[in-house]
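Appendix B. One record, verbatim.
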Amino acid sequence: MSGSEEFRPHRVAVLALDGLLPFELGIPHRIFGRPKDKRGRHLYEVVTCSVRPPGPVETDADFAIHVAHGPEALAEADTVIVPASYALGPVFEEGRLTGDLAAALARIRPGTRLASICTGAFVLAAAGLLDGRPATTHWAHAERFQRMFPKAELDADVLYIDDGDVLTSAGVAAGIDLCLHMVRRDFGAAVANEVARLTVVPPHRDGGQAQYIERPVPDPQLATTTAARAWALGRLHEPIQLRDMAEQEAMSVRTFTRRFREEAGISPGQWLTQQRVERARHLLETTDLSIDQVAREAGFGTAQSMRQHLQQSLGVTPTAYRRTFRTGVRT
C-alpha cells in the first residue's frame, strides 16, 4: 500500500448462530485481533454479528452472549467466518437454511471470502456454496455431511482446506490453524508466526485429523512401529528407505506401512519429512550452521530440497525462518 492510499483494515465478520461454541466464536477475534502494521495500526477489523437485530445469542454453555451487530454487518465484510453451532436445526438435520439465515447470507457481497470452523461448513454447504468444491468439517460429522451434501468434495482427514475464496476447517483447534493460514496468506509468514507466538500455538500443525480420531488400543502382543521411529530419529541425516524402517520391526513393507498409518495417522514418508523439518527448524533457531550444513544434518541433502520442504510446510524459506526465530546465537 502506498503512502497516498487511505489505510483500511481488512474487515472480518463472524456470524454468531444460536447454539454456538464460545471457544470457537473467540478464535477469529483472538487471531485476527493481533496483527498490526509497523505504525501500530490493526490490520484487521473484527465484528460479531447475528442473523437477527442486535441482542442475545444462545451458546452451548450456561450463558448467552450479547451481539452488538445484526446481519447488515455481513454486507460490509471482506471475510465472513461461520463458527460451529450445536443448534443448526434444519441445516444439520435436513441440509436446508432457515429463512433468517438465508436472508442474512444473501447480504454478503459477491467476491467476499467465506470460511467455516467445524460444523459451520454445514451452513456453507446448505447455501450451495460448497457444490463442486473441496471442503472439510469435523471428522465426527463427516459421514452425515457427505450424505447430506454429495455435491461437495469432502476430505475428512485434513485440518483445513483453502479453495481460494471459500475455506473450511475441521473442529475447534483447526479453526486456529485456518485463521493463522488466512493471516499468512494476507500478510505473510512473519506476521502469522508472530500471532502464533503471542497465542502460544504452533504456526503450522502437521498431519491431518487422523491423528485425533480415537482408535482401538493396539493389542500389546502385536508389534508396533515405535522402535523403527526411534531408529530413524537417530539417523535423520542419513538416507532412510521404507524397507530399512520395516526391517527394524521385522515386518514386510506393506504390513509396516499399514501399521504405521494406524499408529501415526500419516505415512512413514510424511512422518520422516515432518521430523526433518522439525530438525531443520531447531538447527536454524539454535545454531550457527550454514544453510547447506543444516540441510545435510536434517537429512534433506541439499539446501534447495530443504527450501522446498520448509516453504511447503511452513510457508517460509530457511533464511527467513532463521531471521524470524533465531535466538541465542551470533548474527
